[in-house]
Amino acid sequence: MGIRFTISRKIALGFGLFIAAVVALTLIVNRTLSSGLETNEDITQVYAPSQRALEKLDNQILRSYQLITQWIHVQSRDDEKFKTELRQIMSESLPSHIGRVDSLSVNWGESDQKIKDRLLRNIQHLSLAYSQVMKTLKDFASYSDPFATMSAEQALLPGEVIDAPFQKIREDLNTLLNNQELLLNEATERENATYEYMFTISFWLMGALIVVGIIIAIFVIRSIVRPVNELKKSLLYLGKGIYPNTSFKVANDEIGDMTFAVNRLVDGLKKTREFSLQVGSGNFNASYHPLSDEDELGHALLKMRDELAESERVLEQKVVERTNEVVRQKEQIENQKERVTQLYKDLTDSINYAKRIQQTILPTEEQVHAMFSESFIMYRPKDIVSGDFYWFKSSGKKLMFAAVDCTGHGVPGAFMSLVGHNILNHVAKVFTRPSQVLNNLNRMALEILDSGGSSQIKDGMDLAFCTLDADTMELEFSGAQNPIWIIRKGELIEQKGDKQSIGSFTHGDFQFTNHNFQLQSGDCVYIFSDGFVDQFGGPRNKKFMRKQFRELLISAAPLHMDEQKNMIEQAFVRWRGALDQVDDILVIGIRV
Prior knowledge:
By secondary structure, the chain is an alpha+beta fold.
């Protein structure tokens, strides 16, 4: 017997060619992507972070030079703000940025690392010179010493102990920044060339795949699809209850086997039809012979005949019993429906009353405008009550405000917001510095939430807290997870909060950071919860995300505050569409 050229072999031959082409395409694309990913990793992990770190270090060096110059030329007390800022830069900011540059430099070239080492030595020399000046002019009275002031002023002269290392530092920073920018541009060009090569190869291979696919399709149509369509037509007739009048020719392949099975199926269905008509007419004595011992349908029909005969006897009794049961269940359902309706009404009334209670803790629009004449608040609870709340309070010339996001939303979030609001009012009676407020807010929150001794309570708050000096326009900020955004002349300045939530750590284990900003007239300040950026919507049902939120605020910032609020609310409604709101939403905007 010769080997049959079966359907499986026909398909295997055609699709073997197709799979080979797909594998080739996959290997080329994978290799190209690997090269592109390596280049992208260099960009994101080395060149771009290095450039940002060097720019921040450069800013700190410039700022420290300005402050030491002011220290030397302005007779002042030891607690002056610019002196405090210089000490903070020398003790915290500058070491932090130096450490960041030092950690990134392990991936630099040998020449850049030598420049970095020289840079760090000069920074040490500059720091020692600063320290000497700070010790020489340590208090208000020391400025009266001509020798001390002359010695300090001489340090600023060209080539002296401050100017010399400062100029070298600026030169080295400029060299490193230029080198990192050059490396970043080269890596970007390599990455673009890699992906362009991948797209070209993919285009030609996809063309080859299309050609192979067309050949396979023609082959399948001629050898498989045409006879299968004939069988399909017969099966469609059978599906409509129409039996074919002719038998099909049996070929020497799997389709021939299927044709043989269809012919047998037609004969069996005709016999089954005759037997079913007899049973359906009530003739439970009709005979039927299964096609074989394994004929499950035939045996099932015989069993059905016997069971129908038995079922007919008890059917009327079951109908009566079940009718009575349905009537009884209907009465129970109606009673339960009335009870559920009443319970739902009571629950809704209670939550609405809780909403009125919650609204009493929120400042009125008049109170907010009394503190900030140009401002808006977008407040959209997800449910009747909210886990977000806004807070405003003035203490002399200190204007304090906060956007608070409590754990959860709905009723649990609302209870947490009442606790948070009460603690915040209590703490603000004593403290106005944002970091102190958050530290003590965390302490009191832990004391209240864990008052029963349970260590399993995980409730807490994320918030952004600000204090504005109405005279100097100096803004202080501290955040628990949440940031503050300042938009000045179309540019967005972001200060992130600490990566700790209120209630997430034991008091004393962590201290919140205090940030200072000198605001200018016309600046717009924004604080918010994460409800807006986490909202799903848009054409692909994705989150709104912070990048799109930044662009929205930047475009809205030039408008009047009421127009800003309308623009932001309309953007939210358009994005959400028909989807449900996923979280409470709070956005506060203030123009100074």
